[in-house]
Amino acid sequence: MEVFDLTLIGLTRVFSPENLAMLCIGLSIGMAVGIMPGLGIVNGIILALPFTYKMGIEPSIILLTSIYMAGTYAGAYTAILYRIPGESNDIPLLWDGYRMAQNGQAANALGWALVAALVGGLASTAFMVALARPLSVLALSFGAPEYFAAVCFGLSTVVALGGRSLVNAIIGLCIGLTISTVGIDSIYGTSRFTFDAPLLTGGIPYLTALIGMYGVGEVLSRMGRPAQAAGQAVSRQAASHSLTKTTLPKWSELWALRATLGRSTVLGTLLGTIPGAGATVTSFVSYGVEKQYGKRGAQLGSGLPEGVVAPQIGSTASVAGHMVPLLTLGLPGSGATAIILAAFLLHGVQPGPLLFASEASRITAYTIFASMFIAVIGMCLMSFLWIRITVRMLSIPTPFLDAAIVMFCILGVYADRNNMSDVWMVVTFGGLGYLFEKFKFPIAPLVLGVILGPIAESSFMQSMLSFDNDWTIFFRSPISGTIMACAILALLYPAAKQYIGRKRAFGTA
Amino acid sequence: MTASRPASSDQQTDAAPTFQDRLKRSLPYFLIVCVGLYLLHLTRGFDYDQAAGSIGPHAWPRLVLFLMVGCCAFEILRLALFWNGDRRSGQADDDVVPDLTEDDAGFDNLAQASAALGAIIAYLLTLPYLGFFAATVTFIWSFAVIAGYPRLFTVTVVALSLTLIFMFLFMKVIYVSLPIGMGPFAQLSLWMMKLLGVT
Question: CA A190 to CA A500: how far, in whole Å?
């Protein structure tokens, strides 16, 4: 009952002028970054971050989560109509959504995508609201070994889902964890890897790694690719494409797809809670499950509504799912939630179980939850009103967009502490990000390693000091033992998948 | 189900990789091993008051670095002994999770990326002298030209407009003190700030 009351209080606070304005701005930015092929959701959140410095905690987080939420949906429009996936999570929409458009059912495909985003977003947010309090109570009972195990699980799933090469992902993670050790050690006060440079004594701010790798690194990688001009030409052509209205499905049609709606919502939300399983993974997995277990799975790819509903629900539902570990444990599972964590920390608020401890912070947390309900509804309404204007942004030439992103990255970091050293670090990480992309190392494990490294180290060291350096404590305690087992399973998953794939390939050869 | 993706030109080779291919692929791992070993060596010099039973500030970095060096060594060995080229035959058909690190377009345009990085570095080096306005106009202009935008007049107009927007947003809206530069550039910056109503 308290949860319901708090959500209602949160709802009333969302409608305060500042919060509502931030929600609308966030949705508009999210729509824009969602449809622009070169501009990812993470980029969009990074661009908005500097503007949150002077705001309160509630409008800041509402702004960033709204961008995140809308970013997972807006790309459906361009994917279905123009075959341009704004984000990688929109790729499955090409297979059936674009085919529907080719079959003259573009308006229906857009309607299905809208319903899917609405259902997935609302259901997963409700799940998050219901789960947040019990999880935070559970998290309060966590000691250092349990926390270490939780961080290990988060990092292992990020590594496991990070890309084709597990080894590259682990190496990226280790580089991130090593970067996080630079500076004065918090337990012994020892200077580590500082090379007597005052710049490194205070450690490397993770914001610089985050913005450098995702912002500047992404721009440099894009410039290193030759296909840029062709993509731009497609974008221009798309922007001048005729406009299509959205036709919502009838109740009877919705009822016929109830299994797909239910299955994909549960899958998207649950997968979303797993660190590393971002909107892209949930979207692909939802489509894959629909293909395997759906009533018309074998016909997917020929332009069926199920092929639009499943991935879109998966994408949108993952947003609320991702917010669960961030808000209850303080552990971000993706680049987007890592930046939202940064925004929390910039305002002096540490997300985690203590966020639910006091009345004031509980209200803040539930205001953020409530804003996500409104954001889901708002983004669906905006898709009618705003997206046709937003889609014209596709005609912005990439060079100007890239220059603006670099400027936002530089100024965003500079604005935090008015320190040019931070800017140089961003550029250094940008170069590293380019090298990572070039040599096919996933970026997410490194960034999350930098962010979660201090938590991992302090909980590891505290466990060692408290339990006489007995490392088996991580496996002996029931909670940490279970989480560690999950972490090991997550690490074994890619190897097992590859082994089964090879066996199948040899079997069919 | 299969996420159909076009094949990368450099990846679907049927010929067995040569020694040079293996060396080229192993190079990043060699580099990381060297850095890792050097950092491991540095951990021996961490100075702290050794209390009984404490594992010291080097324990965690060593654990991480050993894992990193071990993974690199594994990959170097794999590339040297077991790698037969990047063919897809061994990949699962039901791979529903896309490979997010893969870029089918390749990274052919190293010169453009390097020039862009050079432009960013030049921008940061000149910023204290030219001030935000002059340096940013020059940077955006050169960045767009490097990125291959052909119309110079449009580039100039956009560079000026974007710089003014950034100045307004960061100086007027979120009160960031941006560098004004030296000599005549400082005068120019102050004049532009006055124009934007930044006091």
Answer: 47
